[in-house]
Amino acid sequence: MILTLDFETYYAKDYTLKKLTTEEYIRDERFAVHGVGMKVNDEASFYIWTDIAGFLKSIDWSSAYVLCHNTRFDGAILSWRYGIRPKFLLDTMSMARAVFPHESSSLANLSKLCGLGEKGHDLESFMGKRDLTEEEQVRLGLYCMNDVDLTYKLFQHMKNKFQPSELKVIDQTLRMFTEPVLELDTKVLEGHLVKLQEKRTAVLSGYDITSLRSGPKFAALLRSLGVEPPMKISAKTKKPAFAFAKTDEGMTELLEHEDEEVQILAAARLGGNSSIEETRTKRFLGIASRGPLPAPLNYCGAKNTFRFGGAEKINLQNLSKVDPLKADSGALRKAIVAPDGCVLVVADFNAIEARVLALQAEQVDLLDQFQQGADIYCAFAARTYAREITKKENPKERAIGKASILGLGFGMGWKKAAGWFLSGPLGMPPIAFSKGDLDAMGGYLMKLDTNGVTKKLKGVELQAHCSATKHLVDSYRHMYTKIPDYWKTCNRMLDCMHRGVKRQFGVLSTDHERMILPNGLSIYYKGLCWEDKKEEDENGFGSWWYFGKKGRQEVKQRIHGPKFAENGVQAIARILMTDAMLKIGERFRVCLTVHDEIVCCVKEEEADEALKYMIEVMAVAPGWCKDLPLTGSGGVAKSYGEVEK
User: Fold this and answer.
1) Could you report the per-residue pLDDT of 513-525, keeping only the tens digit for each?
2) How far, CA to CA in Å, does 487 sit from each of 312, 481, 494?
3) 3-class DSSP assignment, residue 232
4) CB 529 within 8 A of CB 460
């Protein structure tokens, strides 16, 4: 039974989803339900506004497939306010993120786009009205039933584009929010907030705040911290410019940077009083005062990889990591804990993107090393340094090998890589190569144009760092020659997509402006075209462009072979991760996922069994890529931030 459902609730100017998160709104003491619209399968819709709790209790939810537009909202009301947990959750908003990635996911826009009908505009007349007359309830009911009908039609319009497994992923993702089990440690959060506020005061006392308003001065400051300033093409001048506006993607990345000092300075430039870390800590404390932590994730949140996106103003996909060398690092992760009698079991895929890239590129020797269980990071470092490298005896060299294997597979040139190593790649400590490192690698000092790399190093130190980085980049490409060849293949696939030619490459294929994924979904490169104006990068890849979404704006974005390869690899990795998530969820409660990591909440006595099972599931490749060697690793702890893998 598909039960399409839509709650109509009280709202006011100071109490609305535009100002509050879903969690804040539904758990607020002002929350009240006016009525609920329903539709059973394709029967006529109806509206209930009296004895709503009694009516809902009369339904057999054990067989109900509940369909809503924004089920995170309506499903949370069912769960938190009425204690109802249906058999299955469907959501047209989530589905639309995959089918119409460049469109607003509002019901009004999607209904119009698909020719399903017009959404009503009567809701504003009910703002601030807590008690409705019978006449008003009738009007609201008509508005609500129209929404219910449009939601059902929209589901029918999109459902054939989804395999059952993807609908199960949507259901599992929604339940992480609507049926929360994670708790928050307020003592950890309160202590962290005090330290953040003290650090903000200390950091800002060392700077002239007015100088942060200057683009060049702010850029110089970032470089002094080992961070390359984000750039964009100015809409007015058509020339490169600093991406320091509040709406710029690069600025968003600075506001969410792992270095809290960078966060503080970026927030100060925009006139803010708090860093993202501080704001999130306050939000976590607010959630803790109201109940368990709902895990909000946007299905297909990342348009070109279909990976999950963060939501509800806390972005659990981008929490600061725990640094063993810093006692107060990763506090938000440490504050996420299992309830009494339970622990968190966390497992993630080992180097999944590097493995998928090797499969797609047919880099057989690298695949063989993965298959044999070799330490691929030590192996690359050993080739680079021409001597044996072990994890225990050579941690720095292995870290360099790890950064190279995981970071150089998608066309990163030496200039970008030089800044990347200095900024602390993959959450590791910053890596600055010395003349001694260069000599140990068997490289030689080159005269390179280091303009724009960093202001953290100068003279011979800068040349040595850049020369060592270029040596690593060249070594990677010479060692794994099939991978640069694959970038060229991907560039040809862009041409096929532009011309509407269908081609298979690895487990992916092309169609007009689309990359077809193994799960039947496709990544859409709207308006893909080649521009005659030559804008080759340092790898010689030219100017393919498409229209993508940045926030609510549609902007022209550049795409080339290595970037296209990265999109495909990450999309494949996401499918592998969610397939494992579904399988694991059949036995244990999946309560969160972060990138390639799956988090389960289990009873203490089941921890060892759960970890073993999760790693076993992760090691099994699906039939469409049966030759892909997969492994996982994990750990168990009371706190998410204390899990050692």
Assistant:
1) 999 999 999 999 9
2) 36, 10, 11
3) strand
4) no
